[in-house]
Design a protein that fits this description.
Blueprint lengths: L1 E4 L5 E4 L2 E4 L9 E4 L4 E5 L25 H9 L5 E5 L3 E4 L4 E3 L5 E4 L6 E4 L7 E3 L7 E11 L10 H4 L4 E3 L20 E11 L10 E3 L3 E5 L2 E3 L2 E2 L15 E3 L2 E5 L2 E3 L2 E2 L16 E3 L4 E5 L2 E3 L2 E2 L7 E4 L3 E5 L2 E3 L6 E4 L3 E5 L2 E3 L3 E3 L2 E3 L4 E2 L9 E3 L24 E3 L2 E3 L13
Parallel strand pairs: 5-6, 6-9, 7-10, 8-11, 9-12, 10-12, 11-13, 12-14, 13-15, 14-16, 14-17, 15-19, 16-20, 17-21, 18-22, 19-23, 20-24, 21-25, 22-26, 23-27, 24-28, 25-29, 27-30, 28-31, 29-32, 30-33, 31-34, 32-35, 34-36
Antiparallel strand pairs: 1-4, 2-3, 37-38
């Protein structure tokens, strides 16, 4: 029996130094493969056609081809088989959302995010990852781009609108729009995205790129960019949440970039809800672990937490990362249980709120008026560089650029960051 690990032990250059991936906050997702529980399909057409006989374990449309939709339909019919679906180069335009609901496991693999694109064509959500049975559901999507998702607007049911590119949830039923407050993660979807670009998707309420409403999501070596929550048509509420990612459950972001995502609203600055979490929004009791990653150049209209917004009992830990050039109040923590920084650079992304903590090694250029003081936890391995009240520090960074397998910033000559970590 073979065990496949979906995390790679790698290192990346971060401000001129090497840092190992941060594993203490996340578990390794292992998929057990063997001849008797593994099956695979090779997709040979970009047409969005259905399988002629779902359940016969043959991926075949009416033209005799194996389409992505036909492969998914076959995988959904088997409860004790892990399926791998291999895509070719091309733009896979969808007529309707692809629903992944095999409770045992599915791996969808492209030829690389620049070569394989699964596209909602501006009219439908790209992927729904669904879970109906009380068993662990392992879904992995690797080496492709998810783009053009735009689910139809539905004001009465939040979750019908959430998630432009991907929506992860427990049921397709639209009768109940609420979610468990304290679910057991082991019986909910466990989803990994590796070397995936999620871009140019839209939700009219939450999660322009991704809406995590159940289970766990791991992003490794991914890019989440140019996704939007315009909050259009929301006549009774002023804005949306999570331009890049809306997180209701457990999120791990590893060696990834979240940038140029946006939330906005159609009302005024006095609206009851004015748009939060341009990059990432962590909702009630959510958990987020962000390591070796960049959150940059995200925005909200009138709102707070343009890079990250964490509220109401949520817990966020950010290590070996950079949060840079997010408009206005870049990091919001209102009512959150904790937001912890470790070896992280925060520049032009003013923190606002409460319950900010540090484990040391951080460089933060501006803490505002003092309402967002940061509390030290224990004895730091290295000291923080923090400004005094009313002061700011100069980070002296390069422009946003490609760095190995992700995007980020490098220190210019003379930058204080060179000697921080």
């Amino acid at each position: 029996m073979e065990t496949r690990r979906f995390f790679k032990l790698t290192q990346i250059v971060f401000f001129g130094l090497l840092f190992p991936l941060f594993f203490s906050s996340c578990e390794v997702f292992e998929e057990v493969l063997s001849p008797e529980n593994n099956s695979g399909f090779i997709v040979n057409t970009t047409d969005d056609t259905s399988d002629i006989n779902p359940g016969d374990d043959i991926c075949e449309d009416e033209n005799g081809n194996c389409s992505l939709r036909a492969a998914v339909q076959e995988a959904n019919t088997r409860s004790q088989v892990t399926y791998s679906i291999e895509l070719q180069e091309g733009n896979y335009l969808l007529d309707s959302t692809l629903e992944l609901k095999n409770p045992f496991g599915v791996l969808i693999k492209g030829k690389g995010p620049e070569r394989t694109v699964v596209n909602g064509n501006g009219a439908v959500r790209v992927f729904d990852i669904l879970k109906d049975e009380d068993v662990l559901s392992n879904i992995a999507i690797n080496d492709l781009t998810i783009s053009g998702g735009n689910p139809q607007y539905n004001f009465s049911l939040f979750r019908e609108t959430a998630g432009g590119g991907i929506r992860i949830l427990t049921s397709t039923s639209s009768a109940e729009p609420t979610f468990p407050e304290n679910p057991t993660p082991e019986i909910y979807p466990y989803v990994t995205l590796t070397n995936v670009i999620v871009e140019d998707n839209i939700s009219s309420y939450a999660g322009g790129g991704i809406a995590l409403l159940a289970g766990r999501l791991v992003l490794e070596s991914c890019i989440v960019r140019n996704n939007r929550v315009p909050a259009a048509n929301l006549e009774n509420s002023g804005g949306g949440y999570g331009g890049g990612i809306y997180n209701k459950m457990i999120l791990n972001v590893i060696s990834s970039s979240v940038y140029q995502n946006e939330t906005s609203n159609t009302l005024s600055e006095d609206a009851e809800s004015i748009g939060e979490g341009g990059g990432i929004f962590n909702a009630l009791d959510a958990q987020a672990f962000i390591s070796n990653s960049t959150i940059s150049d995200n925005s909200t209209e009138f709102g707070y937490g343009t890079g990250i917004s964490s509220i109401n009992g949520s817990r966020t830990r950010i290590s070996n990362s950079s949060i840079i050039d997010n408009d206005d109040f870049g990091i919001k923590s209102f009512g959150a249980d904790s937001l912890i920084f470790v070896n992280t650079v925060v520049s032009n992304s003013l923190p606002i709120g409460n319950n900010f903590y540090t484990l040391g090694g951080n460089f933060i250029d501006d803490l505002g008026s003092g309402s967002s003081r940061i509390t030290l936890l224990g004895t730091p391995m290295s000291p923080d560089q923090l400004p005094g009240v009313g002061e700011t520090l100069d980070t002296m960074l390069s422009s946003f650029q490609r760095i190995i397998n992700t995007w980020g910033y490098l220190p210019l000559f003379g930058s204080p960051l060179i000697n921080v970590m």
